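tool_call: predict_structure(chain=1)
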Amino acid sequence: MAVNWAQVIFNSVVTGSLYLIGAVGLTLTYGLSKFPNFAHAELITIGAFIGYFVTEQLGLGWPMALVVAFISSGLVGFLCCRGIFQPLARRGSSIIHLMVASIALGFILRHSVGAAWTWKPLYFTTHWSAFDVGPLRITGLWLWLIISALGLSLVMHLFLMYTKMGKAIRASSSNPALARASGINVDRVIWVTWFIGAGLAAVAGVFRGADTQIWPMTGWDIILPVFAVAILGGIGNFYGAIAAAFIIGLAENIGVVGLMALGVSTTYRIGIAFLILIVTLIVKPEGLAMLFRRA
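tool_result:
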């Protein structure tokens, strides 16, 4: 079987870009709130449906869809943090309690989305041009995704390194008690982080929906690789998440080649992220964080 390795590498960049956008918010909120938010999958789903609503039903165009999805899902994330998770944490809830609460919240959001829209798959009607560059087959959507991932990474880098709120996020994630003692309003920092994290999840949802389909399980279709990226990159580590996203994207696409060579269904590609997740937890639980101490 002849393999177009240039296309495999390019597809890995596309996959890694999607996982990067979806995982950055998760790793930042995980680093601050100290529990895995499984409702992150529904924030991705909400973004996909909002994007569909803006483009297909309001006809406002693709850029507006990304902006509205970011703000809408960001508000949902903020309200979930402010109204559910922070009150539970103040009452001494353990990480297990918070995790179970996120699963329950995700169930409620998922079925609310299904009731508000539909459980049948929806599709964007936007036509994306496709063209060849040497051995590569490229679409406009994939270029949008890669450019968005790189742009958001740069913006987040500048935000975290050079703004007062960004420095507060890093300080609060590293040592919340010391941050409070230094006069940082940690609660406000957490709210901003949840808003940004949920907004980025929504952007990932819009791209995922445009590339495949939209239905109430859209977020769950990619949540395992997103968690794998967050864990491999090191919980709360933005720069580790960037590296981990493209590592998992590459591993997944090479794995697809292997599955096809063995005559096995490519639906098992999700198992590759699961395998990386398990190995990371066993061998190097801190992930790539040691390589990116400044994050």
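agent: The chain has a mean pLDDT of 90. Proceeding to next step.
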